[in-house]
Amino acid sequence: MPINRTRLRTRIVSHVLRALLLLAATLTCCLTSPAPAASARAAPGSGVWPLEPRPEVVAGFDPPATRWGRGHRGVDLAGRAGQMVLAAEAGQVSFAGTIAGRGVVVVQHEGGTRTTYEPVTPSVSVGDVLDAGAPVGHLQLFGSHCFPRWCLHWGLVEGRDHYLDPLLLVGAAPVILLPLQPGVLLQGTLPGLPGLFRSLLPGTFPSLPAPAQAPVQAPVQAPAQATAQATVQATVQATGEVPAQARGWAWR
Known about the structure:
The protein is of the alpha+beta class. The chain has helices spanning 5-32, 194-198, 223-239, and strands spanning 57-59, 75-78, 84-86, 91-99, 102-108, 113-118, 120-122, 129-130, 135-139, 151-158, 162-164.
């Protein structure tokens, strides 16, 4: 049965166009979908240091890989004996007491976050409303993470048990580069993909001029070498033989 080339060509083109349309629709949905909404948390740099003057960070934030794994769920700040501990943000005291022999103060903040301070001798009670920088207690030695030094363990928790780096509150957390969020594209590529395809076509970028090449100069022959070559040529023309010196032997 003869093959209908026209019909075959039409079917191939139809399948290709359908695949391209599907690809375009998929890319459009993926690239223009809004980024997932960030969970409620304190704005970076919105708080104050819980110790004054600005303390040394003895141990940084190192969250565990698993929920119950080992890690450092806060930061340790170097302090001094009996130093006043301050609330990092405005909020309400949700806990002020002793856990395993060390004093702990927890302050609840707007947005679903809370800050923790230990070991601290509390000077506040549950329900107290505090401003940022208000005293919550005095630093203890027992329970210090950097014993025998005096240190404050400062934590930031979101929700039930999602630990964050408290240095975010004072704008001192390490900078972490994140991948490009969906929907962030160059102008002209959406809606539709012609602009994106045009950027992939050859010849769309201006070509750089070829580097200028220096003119090739003929090698300059020394006078002695030129005289020797002239002598060899004259001998060949007169006798038809090549001198022995020109057969690869060195001149003496």
